[in-house]
Amino acid sequence: PFPAGAGRGPGGRPPARAFDPPGASGPLAGVVAGLCSCPFDRAVVLAVDLPFATSAALAALLGHLGDHQAVVPAPGGVPQPLAAAYAATARALLAARLEAGERSLTRAVDSLDALRLDDEAQRRLPGGLENFFNLNTREDLAEAERRLAAREAAR
After folding, report:
1. Nearest to 122 by CA among 133, 114, 112
2. Integer Cα distance of 108 and 115 in angstroms
3. Which end is more exposed in the chain, N or C (fewer Cβ atoms within 10 Å of the end residue's Cβ)?
4. CB 46 within 8 A of CB 53
5. How far is CA 85 from CA 52, 80, 92, 110, 149, in A?
6. What does the alpha-carbon distance between residue 93 and residue 35 come to, in Å, rounded to a whole number?
7. Going by C-beta distance under 8 Å and a sequence separation of 6 or more, which residues neighbour residue 83?
């Protein structure tokens, strides 16, 4: 996220809009659009429904990338390709999968040389497993509010 009115994104670049490729929609199309929107060596894709993801944890994902095409956390064994790090080499492969008719981001990412981080590896990230708390329901919102209140009370 960029501060309101800042007009600059990470690295001092102006923020760019990315639009799904014509005839495609969904998470894979969005990731492909984002990865194709500007040059990069390494990138993080982050869904908006992960309120506790920290910049330190995202930097750690990038640090695990090495020679892999992606680093994908899999809390509870469920891959989270919308909270992952990608190498530039992933861009063309994901775009080709989309062009071939694939619509599942998870299946497309499965075709990459991806390092999956299990729960133990995620616990070692700054902020641990909480980085991947996914807020989708009213119950999730109540849990997020409870966690935030507990943090505030601990201060």
Report:
1. 133
2. 14
3. C
4. yes
5. 17, 10, 15, 14, 30
6. 11
7. 45, 46, 47, 50, 53, 73, 131, 132
Question: How, if at all, do strands 70-73 and 83-87 pair?
Answer: antiparallel
User: Residue 75 has which token pair?
Assistant: 């809390």
**What's this model's pTM, rounded to 2 decimal places?**
0.86
Of residues 131, 125, 132, the one with CA closest to residue 63:
125
